[in-house]
Amino acid sequence: MNSTPPSPITNHLIDRLPQQERASFLADCQVIDLVFGEVITEHGGRISHVHFPLDSFISQIANLSSDREQLEVAMVGSEGMLGTPLILGVDESPWLALVQGAGPALRMPAAVFGRHLAQSPTLQALLKRYLYVVMHQLSRVAACTHFHQVEARLARWLLMTQDRAHSDELHLTHEFLAMMLGVRRAGITLAAMALQSRRLIRYQRGDIVVLDRTGLIEASCGCYASDRSLYRRHITGGGAALDLLTRPGEASAGKS
User: Fold this and answer.
1) Per-residue model confidence as pLDDT tens digits over 17-55
2) pTM
3) Coil, helix or strand at residue 143
4) pLDDT tens for residues 223-253?
5) What's the CA gap between 84 and 76, in Å, rounded?
6) pLDDT above 50 (res 128)
7) Residue 226: alpha-carbon gap to chain centroid
8) Ramachandran area for residue 83 (φ above 0: left; ψ -120 to 50: alpha; else beta)
9) Across the strands, what pairs with 57?
10) Judging by DSSP bridges, how do beta strands 169-171 and 207-210 pair with one another?
11) Topology of the domain comprising 10-124
């Protein structure tokens, strides 16, 4: 089983700010604990705070006409922030924000965030780049959902979750996975069995253990590697030092 790095105690977006600006920004943040299953914002709800996960992660879920018509369109962990519409001056959430990984996060009131944004060209430039990354990834999710097989999409999703959970052990039911990927439970069962038969994962009673991360990357669709490269290119400047998606032994393979 591939080992995972220690959990980060920071947020990579905030880390990109110059020291003085970072200190000022952090002074206006509150450290909170996100609880698994907690709804931070409803679809169409008002965004009262921005959240910067530290060792937690949040699913952003698109809702259509009913609770059965849901699809995860984005996932945010210590690489990003929740509340991107505020960058555009909009305080309405386009999705349901659901805590998927419990743990600490930084929280700042929307009005305070707006003042920091107005006063800091550096923060504006950084978050505009991040917003571009999010937009690019959202468009890729739409294409991935339509064109790629469930097995490859499941492999990608497990890798994304592993990155943000900082663990090889994940507690995920078929019902939950089906909702996240927008497919039937039978499709998840077949895809999970296929990955397990290749000894990439072990699945039992809602617990998934990643056994072979390298093999899982090979089984995933190309969207996973593309998202990693996109984040490095626009946020970390091509370097891997702050890239939570780069793990031991992958530094060379991860470069584009």
Assistant:
1) 999 999 999 999 999 999 999 999 999 999 999 999 999
2) 0.85
3) helix
4) 999 999 999 999 987 544 334 444 434 443 3
5) 11
6) yes
7) 14
8) left
9) 101
10) antiparallel
11) Jelly Rolls (2.60.120)
